[in-house]
Amino acid sequence: MTLSSQPITETAVVLSGGLSHERDVSLRSGRRVAMALRSRGVEVIESDVDSNLIGLLDSLPQAVVFPVLHGEAGEDGALREVLSLLGVPFVGSVGAACRVAFDKSIATTVVAESGVATPTQIALPHEIFRELGAQALMAALADQIGFPMMVKPSRSGSALGASKVTRPEELPSAMVGAYAYGSVAVIEQFVSGVEVTVTVADRGDGPKALPAVEIRPDSGVYDYAARYTAGATRFLCPAELDPAVAEACASVALRVHDVLGLRDLSRTDLIVTPDGVPTFLEVNVAPGMTETSAVPLAVESAGWSLGKMCADLIRVAARRGGRVPAEPVA
């Protein structure tokens, strides 16, 4: 019997919601994952993250958790460390890897050291920005990074608090917007080119890069509204890339997944420059699963079904937790 054909005897607990700014998106992702798992005959319990969660998991000795929490509460690794402490198997990366991946200033540094192209980037804590003089620092940023530039929180998702800055007079409000979502702002070179995102999934036989999704927002900037408003962005999957460039994007996503120590599922966002170089922007350890998210599109383009992929990830987590025997994948 292969891993994919094994019956699932565990209960999948899909965690979504939380208290981050991305709660609504997380709930939408959670409903999609729960529906996909049920389509494969998996028993699913949907749960928020609250004071009842540990009691719920205690009552389900065969539970495998599928976290679909976006933002700091779900992607900074804290929840996953609690699950590890409780001995509860879960889908996705461990806490330590999540902490590195979620912080854009740290993840970009690690990825750059592995040889992957990244934008020039500076991270500024709010205290430093305030104490040393905003005006002087903004002038230095303009000199070092140049315009246009991107300003965003170091620890946030869904492009919340992110903005493209094309003129010096736009920089103060952009910094305020970034600090509204976190204590550290990242200011980086704006990279022009084709925006793509590549999902990496490991269904038990090693990480595989799915077809790249090309992102074409009507507004020209893939911000929160462009991500989660139906019809605001055009997605092409597979992306309209030269085959060699598409392969390079897949290789970068697999490299990011590896050097950051991720497992099961990740999504790497890239810009392909006019000369065909994939440039790393950020990585997501709990990528969106909504009706406007890229992962389900990539799964379909790969010839998989979302339900089967999610069910396979539950099996992998259960096996890793010692709840089913290890068997080879066909």
From TrEMBL:
Enzyme class: ligase
Assigned EC number: 6.3.2.4
Top-rank taxon: Bacteria
Binding locations of Mg(2+) 1: 269, 282
Nucleotide-binding among keywords: yes
UniProt pathway: Cell wall biogenesis; peptidoglycan biosynthesis
Signal peptide interval: none
Presence of the UniProt keyword Nucleotide-binding in the record: yes
Annotated catalytic residues: 22, 158, 293
InterPro entries: ATP-grasp (IPR011761), ATP_grasp_subdomain_1 (IPR013815), D_ala_D_ala (IPR005905), Dala_Dala_lig_C (IPR011095), Dala_Dala_lig_N (IPR011127), PreATP-grasp_dom_sf (IPR016185)
One GO term describing the cellular component: cytoplasm
Binding annotation for Mg(2+) 2: 282, 284
Subcellular location: Cytoplasm
Catalytic activity: 2 D-alanine + ATP = D-alanyl-D-alanine + ADP + phosphate + H(+)
Cofactor names: Mg(2+); Mn(2+)
Protein name stated in the entry: D-alanine--D-alanine ligase
Naturally occurring in which organism (per UniProt): Microlunatus phosphovorus (strain ATCC 700054 / DSM 10555 / JCM 9379 / NBRC 101784 / NCIMB 13414 / VKM Ac-1990 / NM-1)
